[in-house]
Amino acid sequence: MKTTASPEILSLLPIDRELATPLQQQIYDGIRNAILAGLLRAGQRVPSTRALATDLGVSRLPVLTAYDQLLHEGYLEGRIGSGTFVSVSVPDDALRSVSPIQSRRSTKHSPSRTARTGRGRHLADPLPRHRDDGGFRPFRVSLPALDQFPHTIWSRLVARHARALTPARMAYGDPAGVASFRAAVAEHLRTARAVRCEAEQVLIVSGSQAALCICAAALLGRSDIVAMEEPGYPGAHSALATRGAVIAPVPIDHEGIQIDSLNALGSKVRAAYVTPSHQYPIGTAMTATRRLELIEWATRHSAWILEDDYDSEFRYVSRPLGALQGMDAHERVIYIGTFSKVLFPSIRVGYIVVPPSLRDEFLAAREALDIFSPTLYQLALTDFIREGHFARHLRRMRALYLSRRGALLEGLAAHCADHLTIHNADAGLHISTLLHDGVDDRDVVRRMIARGLSGAALSTCYAGDACQTGLLLGFGGSDETVITGATRVLGEILRQGA
């Protein structure tokens, strides 16, 4: 049976054909360093040499050579009829605090400028919540391909656990989340996002917005200063201000949040909220140098970094970038993620990875919010991940979104090029554009809604007065035919307003 490499392990391999280092050495180093850093665990299966070679776009020979060396040195072990696995006992017993593959991988990708806005309900997308279309309009931001979700598999898993619910499972649950689910999330994050974590550090919550509210409750007090990217995610503004914190906008440039501007705020900044893998809404990928500078800033000021990794699974011009948290040897990063974009929004399951020193404070804040998260979906998600359905779904969605993104780019080029400029379309479920000649983006969005479209105004993501105008256009929730037709309507709207 033909197999494909898990997309998770690809993020651990820093393949760079511009380096003088042979490919087999790069593959060997990537897997070995991941094992030593604890990102690949004892007994975990690794892809076949054929599957890994195909997904890396290299011949099979360098993969075979790297695997042979890893097998010879005892990092991997082969099991007849089963495949290749991480050895139960690796030769190096000292785990490294930070794997060098993480910083090398980050420097490979140049900064990009994509947009994401409306990660939940967006201020410039006033579709009434009671509408029976559920917001299924072309260009709806943050909506995944719900028509392609594996309903049959998911229904079977949910029914399996619903039938087997014991009185203990029906009672009050652990505020941190179901233990088996937290372990599955931790393993996924270690291999897919290069996050350094154990199950005990994972707290299950009802989405990234709840995670931000918990961060505010655990870390912030009245008048504490929170630095935020400018432009940034409006939902984070409101969530982090719930405890009376003061939001301080910090400009971004082509490398990410500006550290000089952050330093200018002084030593009273309690935390900095960032979206380093795909900046919200502009789309800049924070460079390795800027990530290390941010970690150094947080360490020097005893401040915290809130890393919102909301849709990092979908990149179209490179492999997914590793998490900032994985580069942090000082435990200053709180990592936030959600299943809303990769599965479906109404699942309402997210997670926080907290440093061990903060676990008690975060657990108390999490319990105060709503005691615990519903158990049934956690149990079903555990099987969804461990049986391989989640990895397969991600692979399918990457290919699907690549096609839908292509339809959007082609449609905008054909019908809207005279009125807007595409910022970047490297990642995520939407692209950001800039409108020409200072056109009022909020007015454009209102006219789009009147014509049956959706979308979001870039200007609503600025906390300060100075802002750019543009449109954030989602492509995840509509097929190619619908997207093409929608770009034609958008072109008409832009020409009418010119």
Structural overview:
The chain is an alpha/beta fold. Among the domains are: 7-96, Winged helix-like DNA-binding domain superfamily/Winged helix DNA-binding domain (Arc Repressor Mutant, subunit A, Orthogonal Bundle); 164-387, Aspartate Aminotransferase, domain 2. The protein has helices at 7-10, 23-36, 49-56, 60-73, 100-108, 151-163, 167-170, 179-192, 208-219, 234-240, 259-264, 288-301, 359-370, 375-386, 389-415, 441-450, 480-497, and strands spanning 45-46, 76-79, 83-86, 202-205, 225-230, 246-253, 256-257, 269-274, 304-308, 333-338, 350-353, 420-424, 430-435, 456-457, 470-474. The strands form 3 sheets. An 8-stranded mixed β-sheet has the order 4-11-10-9-8-5-6-7, with helices on both faces. Strands 12-13-15-14 form a 4-stranded antiparallel β-sheet, with helices on one face. Strands 1-3-2 form a 3-stranded antiparallel β-sheet. Helix 2 packs across helix 4.
Number of helices: 17
**CATH class term of one domain:** Alpha Beta
* Poorly predicted runs: 92-118, 120-134
Mean pLDDT: 86
Main β sheet profile: 8 strands, mixed
Strand order of the largest sheet: 4-11-10-9-8-5-6-7
What would a concise description of this structure say?
With 498 residues, this protein is of the alpha/beta class. It contains 17 helices and 15 strands.
Set out the fold topology:
Blueprint: H1 7-10, H2 23-36, E1 45-46, H3 49-56, H4 60-73, E2 76-79, E3 83-86, H5 100-108, H6 151-163, H7 167-170, H8 179-192, E4 202-205, H9 208-219, E5 225-230, H10 234-240, E6 246-253, E7 256-257, H11 259-264, E8 269-274, H12 288-301, E9 304-308, E10 333-338, E11 350-353, H13 359-370, H14 375-386, H15 389-415, E12 420-424, E13 430-435, H16 441-450, E14 456-457, E15 470-474, H17 480-497
Parallel strand pairs: 5-6, 5-8, 8-9, 9-10
Antiparallel strand pairs: 1-3, 2-3, 4-11, 6-7, 10-11, 12-13, 13-15, 14-15
Helix pairs in contact: 2-4, 3-4, 6-14, 8-14, 9-10, 9-13, 15-17
